[in-house]
Amino acid sequence: MFAAYLILTDEIPHTILKSMEINSIIHGDCIEELKLFPDNSVDLIFADPPYNMQLKNELYRPNNTKVDGVDDEWDKFNSFSEYDDFCVSWLKECKRVLKNTGSIWVIGSYHNIFRAGNIMLNLGFWILNDVTWHKTNPMPNFLGTRFTNATETLLWCSKGEKCKKYTFNHKMMKKYNGDKQMTSVWRIGLCVGKERLKGEDGRKAHSTQKPEELLKRVILSTSKKGDIVLDPFFGTGTTGAVAKKLGRNYIGIEKEPDYIAIAKKRINAVNIFSPEAEWEEENFTGFKI
Ligand SMILES: C[S@@+](CC[C@H](N)C(=O)[O-])C[C@H]1O[C@@H](n2cnc3c(N)ncnc32)[C@H](O)[C@@H]1O
What is the pLDDT averaged over residues 139-153? Predict the structure, then answer.
């Protein structure tokens, strides 16, 4: 457990803050840890679960160098039904802890998003949008046996058909998008360059670190300042870093201690940023984050 440190809010609108550690990372299995959360306690959930890639063989480029794919232990399941059971368990808990006014985003590739989406519908979540993340710099299809896979899907859902009071900052997102309504296709590059966290060996610290721009759109559009954003698959803490920048509170759950150490260091280095204040300025020229 980590000491909570409260930031950002002038007022504390959440009674829950008394019993839950906000702005902290919980080390453990998200299914077990979520069971300890009270009902209706978080405003927004962003979940980037294992993809269950089912990679059987190592992949090499034409020049014989090995492709650094997602072959981590945390992505391995014995069968599709084991993966489905896993998704039912964590999604059920997410539904229970999400406020009726909240919403959830689940991101995945073609390997898992249809399975997760089907389970979400069966659990009663209500799809508000399926956002396509169009990767502007995708990894090539080295074998030349398929089209280059350049998308992932984000399912944005309310807790149920009748839960209509979810947050959507329509005006802000329009402003963000040069005074045009933002569409459900987001063109964003893979996380590369300075943003990509590296280990001491110079290799990627995590195989699936998401770009901050993606989380910026998610959090800005569907939460308010001071809200609690939960990420049950925290990885390198992208959700926590962006939540902090945007004046939201976060709770992360992650089962690998090495990733937790990376995420803590990353989030501690973040400066808080206030997009709402900047947005209200007359000479608004876009968010700088
Ligand atoms: C797809 S990655 C998330 C990457 C993250 N969005 C980022 O930007 O760094 C999934 C993460 O979930 C963690 N994980 C897998 N199963 C878990 C479980 N049952 N409970 C908690 N964390 C889990 C893995 O260790 C991995 O870091």
Answer: 93
